[in-house]
Every structure is written in C-alpha cells, then in structure tokens.
Amino acid sequence: MTDKKPKAEVVYVDVSGNKFILDSKPKLKWACRRGMLELDVLLEPFVDDAYDALSTHQKAIFQRLLACEDPDLFAWFMGHQKCEDEELNSLVQIILNRVKAD
Q1: For 38-66, what is each residue's pLDDT tens digit?
Q2: Which pLDDT value is given to residue 14?
Q3: Distance CA 70, CA 59 (A)
Q4: Which residue has the higher pLDDT, 25 or 22?
Q5: What distances in angstroms separate CA 22 from CA 1, 7, 67, 81, one per listed residue?
Q6: Which of these, 16, 18, 53, 83, could form a disulfide with 89 (CB 3.0-4.6 Å)?
Q7: CA distance to 16, 35, 93, per residue, from 87 (Å)
Q8: Segment holding 11, helix H or strand E
C-alpha cells in the first residue's frame, strides 16, 4: 500500500467572496483579472505565454501567488517591497524578467 499525499489545491477567493479551485487554464486566467490594470497586464499574458512551461512545483507557486492580495502583488511587482516568501519572490522575478526581455 502506498501513502500518497493528496494534491494540495489552492482555493482562490475572488472579490465577491466566491471560492473556486484553480484547476484549469480558464480559471487561472479569471484569477489573473485583478482590480489593478498593472497586475492584469503582467499576469494574464504570463498565463497565456509562459505558464505551460513552468514545472509542476512552479505552477503550484503561481497559484499561491494568485491567492495573494492585490496591494501586496502591486508592491512586489513594482519593486516597492520584496516578498519575504522566497518561492513567491522567485516567481515574481520570473514574471518580471519575462516582461523585461520583451
């Protein structure tokens, strides 16, 4: 008998308080729609163009990133603050580097 841990799923809560699991690309894209245009233009294209190339672990981190509050995301992406969570910060840098390369 194998002891397989159940897959940890991130429950996303939208601004209306609705909860759903980010288990498909359309749901991810919906979760990328934020209250700030600056975040929308970073996150939505990332899902379209780069999400599929992430490792399974990085995809889980991205889902955790989407569960963060908009003011925190804005501060991290605009360089006003550094995210203290190293995994989240690493993904923030991946997204920013992708934008800088374009």
Answers
A1: 999 999 999 999 999 999 899 989 989 99
A2: 57
A3: 19
A4: 25
A5: 30, 12, 10, 26
A6: 83
A7: 28, 24, 10
A8: strand 11-13
Residue given tokens 């159940």 in the structure block: 6
Decide: residue 30, CB within 10 A, 0-12 exposed, 13-18 middle, 19+ buried: middle
Task: Please list the alpha-helical segments (H only) found in 33-85.
Answer: 37-49, 56-66, 70-77
The position carrying tokens 């995210």 is 83
Read off the tokens for 91.
């993904």
Residue 29 to residues 6, 84, 85, 95, Cα–Cα distance (Å): 24, 25, 23, 15
Q: 22 is written with which tokens?
A: 């980010």
The answer on pLDDT for 12 being more than 80 is no
